[in-house]
Amino acid sequence: PSIALETMICLNLNADEYELRTRLDATELAIVVGASLANWIIGQRQAVGLSVNGADPIGLGEKPQLLQPRKGRTQLTRLLEILARIQSIPTVPFVQVLQREMSQLSWGTTVILITGSVDDALFDEIFRGRRAGLNVVLILCGSVKNLMDVERRAERFGIPVQHFARE
């Protein structure tokens, strides 16, 4: 039997969900983290996809961007092109994007959430994804309100969390 390992990177670029004083650096850091992870995953010969809410000046405008998980350098090139163009703006809340995208993913998919804030609605969506058989990882970028509480709550429920304050 073969196992298809798929990863979906869900990148939050809703400017309203980042701390105002570190917003620019934090969103750029989130993009760098997403690109680095995608490069590593493709290097492992695994499938990776991308979902991001932001503004793409030559793509779909302010609609969330979506690339289904696929393998190969062509997929990495597409993903990096989107990440090079995408801009952080006040847009669709991250939780709404996750509700739509996570319901479409296959059982066993690893979902990497990259964001600048966590609230109860996001934790609810993470739990819903886990109940649906998804492996959820949370990556926080920039200055995060109540970081200790978020880490404690995630640890209690077995959700891996990484925090990057700066590059």
Per-chain topology:
Layout (H helix, E strand, L loop, with lengths): L5 E7 L10 H21 L3 E7 L11 E6 L2 H13 L8 H9 L7 E6 L4 H12 L3 E7 L5 H10 L4 E4 L3
Parallel strand pairs: 1-2, 1-4, 4-5, 5-6
Antiparallel strand pairs: 2-3
Account of the protein in words:
- This protein has 167 residues and is α/β, with parallel strands linked by helices.
- The protein is 39% helix and 22% strand.
- It has a 6-stranded mixed β-sheet, with helices on both faces.
- Helix 1 runs antiparallel to helix 2 and helix 3 runs parallel beside helix 4.
- The protein is globular, with a radius of gyration of 15 Å.
Short description:
This protein is an alpha/beta fold. It contains 5 helices and 6 strands. The N and C termini lie far apart (40 Å).
Name the poorly predicted regions: none
Q: In angstroms, what separates the terminal alpha carbons?
A: 40 Å
Number of helices, counting only DSSP H or I runs of 4 residues or more: 5
* Major sheet attributes: 6 strands, mixed
Structural class: alpha/beta
State the shape.
Answer: globular
